[in-house]
Amino acid sequence: MDLTRARLAGTVAFAHNGFVLGFWIVNIPGILDRTDTSKAQLGVLLLLLGGSALVGMQAAGALIDRVGSRRVLGVAAGAMSLLVVGPAASTSTAALAVTLVLLGLANGAVDVAQNAHAADVERHYGRPIMTSFHAFYSAGGLLVSVVGGLLIAADVDLPVSASAVAVVGVLVVLWVVRGMLPPEPVQHDETPVGRPPWSRHVALLGLLAFVLLLAEGVAYDWSTVHLHETLDASKAVAAYAFGAFSVTMTIVRLVADRVVAAIGPGAYVRWAALLGALGLAGAALAPTVPLGIAAWALFGIGLAGCVPQFFTAAAAVDPRTAGVTMARVTGCGYLGLLAGPSVIGLLTGWVPLTTAFVVPLVGCVLASALAPRALRPVERASS
Question: Are residues 228 and 88 in the same domain?
């Protein structure tokens, strides 16, 4: 068993997922023009993408418990690489809808499978390394923003650039699969375990993943709006808010595992989520643009390493049904990521944007209070 190669394979898998999904995101304006799709229709399409991803997550969880994360990730990530051509080649809103549903199904399966593999590698390592995997998902997104921007600036035909991404993506997946851990043999004395019922522990893990990813989703969609509309920053300067959040998220994810190993996941999330709440409060109260950007950066520092701890805990509930449990907790988190921007948008119809930030702020405080209890079994197992 080559753990170093397995860790590298998982790292590349996360970066691949961030890059391929990010390719669709950076090309949304061009795709809307090709398909003559309105912004209102885009909102519906994004719901289709998110909904199909949730379905893919749940289906993948059961498959992982049967055949292992390597096979599921290989098929789903390979399909995702090829399916990125679909939106780029679409010429109508209907065709775009179909391709996004398929892309969402594959992405949901990849999300669960890559986290399940990361949890397996982390278990064999015997120390926290989960957050470092997520750092490279962020890095893949940052890389595609540069590469995609260069391709757009060079006026490369969108289906051509998407086809190139698909070919390279499939080759990367083939390499990743070869380096992943093989499925562990089933012991003869083990009886088959059916689909496990929801427990209070799993529900708590799902709840905390939900509220923290809800807060993260708010940063994705509302940080630039906050700077532009509340602090009167130009659109160009307002983009620095999300940039600061993304950069600190990536950097902290590279080092958070060492802190988790030193103080334990429960204590880490307790203080990190509180720091995130402080950053969001600072953003809401910031009187100037520089302080607003600094507050969003602090928000990223706080949130960066929190959610991966709940994925590790989900895999540790029962290794025999780790796939299903991981899918449930991941699905709850994904719901939060989808719900966050919508909740804030609805609230801004009644209250100022900065007042609406109370919702994710309370979620961070709730996670800070309950994380030690939710993550206590993992701490016991590691000790």
Answer: no
In angstroms, the CA 142 to CA 144 distance is: 6
- C-alpha 3/C-alpha 180 separation (Å) is 9
Q: Give SS3 for 350.
A: coil
Both tokens of 173, joined, read 């997946």
Q: Would you tell me how many other CB atoms lie within 10 Å of the CB of residue 383? A: 6
Percent of the chain with pLDDT over 90: 57
Buried b (16+ CB within 10 A) or exposed e, 188-214: eeeeeeeeeeeeebbebbbbbbbbbbb
d(CA 103, CA 108): 9
Asked if 121 and 269 sit in the same domain, the reply is: no
Does residue 176 carry a pLDDT above 70?
A: yes
Amino acid, single-letter form, for residue 9: A
C-alpha torsion angle, residues 175, 181, 185, 191 (rounded to 10): -110
Contact yes or no for 343/359 (Cβ under 8 A): yes
Q: Which domain holds residue 72?
A: 3-179
Q: Which residues contact 94 (CB under 8 A, 6 or more apart)?
A: none
CA gyration radius, the chain = 20
Residue 298 belongs to domain with CATH number? 1.20.1250.20
Q: What is the pLDDT of residues 26-82, one digit of tens each?
A: 888 888 889 998 877 887 887 888 889 989 998 998 899 889 999 999 999 999 999
Q: Give 111-171 as a DSSP string.
A: HHHHHHHHHHHHHHHTS--HHHHHHHHHHHHHHHHHHHHHHHHTT--HHHHHHHHHHHHHH
* Global confidence as pTM: 0.82
Residues 366 and 234 placed together within one structural domain of the fold:
yes
The span from the CA of 301 to the CA of 289, in Å, is 19
Q: Count up the domains in the chain and report the number.
A: 2
